[in-house]
Write a structure and sequence with these properties.
Blueprint: E1 8-17, E2 20-29, E3 32-38, E4 41-48, H1 53-63, E5 73-78, E6 84-89, E7 101-102, E8 110-111, H2 130-143, H3 145-150, E9 154-159, E10 164-170, H4 173-186, E11 195-198, H5 204-212, E12 217-220, H6 226-235, E13 238-244, E14 247-250
Parallel strand pairs: 3-6, 11-12, 12-13
Antiparallel strand pairs: 1-2, 3-4, 5-6, 7-8, 9-10, 9-11, 13-14
Helix pairs in contact: 1-4, 5-6
Length: about 280
């Protein structure tokens, strides 16, 4: 089975276009319940795609501050049926948090941290261009293999100025970003001053993950939330949303795209009918 065939279950559906209807042999995104265990203790249970589950567990642990590097992991292994991932740390003093907080993300993801401005601003002079943003967004669209087949899934991508570095898909946009983090850690890849692109809304939790990865520019085909914008302002992260062939919206720190916010003309707000997810 190829990577493009995994994660999809065959399903026949009716396609109606105008007055014409026909049965189509297609598919739907596969969804599964995954339990993540750390040193034998259950840490989290998430609804996710069955792809890249070990990377999801590793990225989740890093983005939530449980680990700071792959050196802290002695073993990461999923079971045969893909319902659990066991992570053994190199130290035995791990204690699960007493309180877990449900996130606003789709896919049932959870986070262990209260989302506050606890991180210091990024010490980075990284600057890119709108042309690079558009090219990397084309890379994101090209990496969306499951989405292009059956829809119903989010895509995330880690990139630099020249190319895509890793990509991931999942039913939850938070899970997709955790998979990106996990893949980078497993490959020994530094995420500092990279671009993070996502097909979904940029929430406060998404910004927290980006800050954890030391990423100065976060890009989406949709919009950020108000708290995400506030965190991005505090952490010196540039948020770019609604990237289309004809344009994009830069919500924070426009200087990272070579713009002088004090020299820009002010236009009346335009209404949009674009999807928010």
């Amino acid at each position: 089975m190829t990577d493009s065939e995994r994660g999809v279950l065959a399903h026949r559906y009716w396609l109606i276009e105008g007055d014409h209807a026909e049965a189509v042999d297609g598919g739907v995104i596969e969804e599964t319940l995954l339990a993540i265990y750390v040193n034998g203790q259950e840490l989290a249970t998430v609804m996710c795609s069955p792809l890249d589950q070990e990377a999801l567990a590793v990225g989740f642990l890093y983005n939530e501050g449980v680990i700071d590097s792959m050196a802290e992991i002695g073993l990461v292994q999923k079971n045969v049926v893909g319902t659990t991932v066991d992570v053994l740390l190199t130290h035995s003093d791990f204690k699960p948090p007493r309180r877990m907080v449900l996130t606003s993300g789709c896919g049932g993801g959870i986070t262990l941290q209260y989302l506050t401005g606890a991180h210091p601003p990024l010490e980075s002079n990284y600057v890119t261009t709108p042309a690079v943003i558009r090219q990397r967004m084309r890379d994101l669209q090209g990496a969306a293999q499951l989405y292009n087949r059956v829809r119903g899934v989010h895509t995330a991508l880690l990139a630099d100025e020249a190319q895509m570095r890793v990509s991931a898909e999942d039913i939850g946009r938070h899970n997709a970003v955790d998979k990106i983090t996990g893949k980078a850690l497993q490959a020994g890849m530094d995420t500092t001053d990279c671009l993070l692109l996502t097909s979904g809304r940029i929430s406060s939790e998404m910004l927290t993950k980006a800050r954890r990865m030391r990423i100065p520019v976060v890009v989406s085909r949709t919009a950020p939330t108000s708290v995400a914008v506030k965190l991005a302002q505090a952490w010196r992260i540039c948020i770019v949303g609604y990237v289309r062939q004809g344009g994009m919206r830069v919500y924070t720190h426009p200087q990272r795209l070579g713009l002088d916010e004090h020299a820009l003309p002010i236009a009346a707000a335009a209404r949009t009918s674009d999807d928010e997810e």
